[in-house]
Amino acid sequence: MSCWVPGCPPLGMCRGVAALPVTSIPPLPFLPSRAKDLKTRLGILLHTPELRHRIGTSSKLQLGSRWRDSSREALEWRESFDQLLKSKSGVTAFHTFLKTEFSEENLDFWLACEDFKKTRSKTKLASKANRIFEEFVQNEAPREVNIDHETREITRKNLTGATSACFNEAQAKTRTLMEKDSYPRFLKSASYQDMAKQATSRGISKRSHT
After folding, report:
1. What are the contacts of 150-153 at 24+ separation with CB within 8 A?
2. Do residues 36 and 157 make contact, with C-beta atoms less than 8 angstroms apart?
3. What 3-state DSSP class applies to 10?
4. SS3 for 173?
5. Where are the domains of the chain?
6. Which CDD domains does the entry mention (predicted)?
7. Superfamily of domain 68-199
8. Is the pLDDT of residue 157 over 60?
């Protein structure tokens, strides 16, 4: 008698496997490269028109509801990338956009570096530096940022005598990448365009009533 699942071995064999204790079944190894491959495939799929439309619509609805009150401020975000990063709601809106491109680790790393610079305790400075490096900078890091090998090695050496400036070069490279690559796409996104239009229409409405 066979199992109902297509391609499954005879039912007796299925029952035999099911009867084994859980501890006797070896766990599957976690391969960081498999996770990175999945992210790469998701990035490729993102360029499929249908999927891009669905993600854009979802992001549009989320931002439209959460940042309606900040729409006037949104007009300032297009003045410069610095202006966007100075705004709390701007950073949050940009982070939401980066999630649709599966690249939010770049902004998270930049923010972690900004927080790191405010650390005053030398003991905390060293422990924070190691955590940031392990999460974002080292090879096969869970949320590895896209920096060159030379910058990665310089940052690794900086950890031996951790100071508030040990991530400066890596942070600058990541910031430039976001400013030149992700930021222009954010300004062209449907979610940001809707916020800008809303801000503009409110401004016109106010002027017409004065």
Report:
1. none
2. no
3. strand
4. helix
5. 68-199
6. RGS_RGS16
7. Regulator of G-protein Signalling 4, domain 2 (1.10.167.10)
8. yes
Q: For residue 32, give Cα distances in angstroms to 37, 93, 142, 144, 191.
A: 9, 29, 7, 10, 32
Distances (CA, A) of 91 to 37, 95, 136, 176, 187: 28, 6, 19, 16, 13
Q: What is the pLDDT of residues 67-119, one digit of tens each?
A: 454 667 899 999 999 999 999 999 999 999 999 999 999 999 999 999 999 99
pLDDT value, residue 164: 95
User: How far apart, in Å, are the Cα atoms of 165 and each of 83, 85, 106?
Assistant: 23, 19, 18
What is the number of other CB atoms lying within 10 angstroms of the CB of residue 124? 12
Summarize the confidence of residues 15-42 as an average pLDDT.
Answer: 46
List CB contacts of 162: < 8 A, sequence separation 6 or more: 125, 126, 129, 130
Give the three-class secondary structure for 93: helix
Residues 6+ apart with CB under 8 A from 85: 91
**What secondary structure does DSSP assign to 122-166, as a single string?**
HHHHHHHHHHHIIIIISTT-TT-----HHHHHHHHHHGGG--TTT
Q: How far apart are CA 17 and CA 40, in angstroms?
A: 35
At residue 57, the 3 state secondary structure works out as helix
- Tell me the C-alpha distance between 175 and 179, whole Å: 6
pTM of the model: 0.66
Write down the pLDDT at residue 97.
Answer: 97
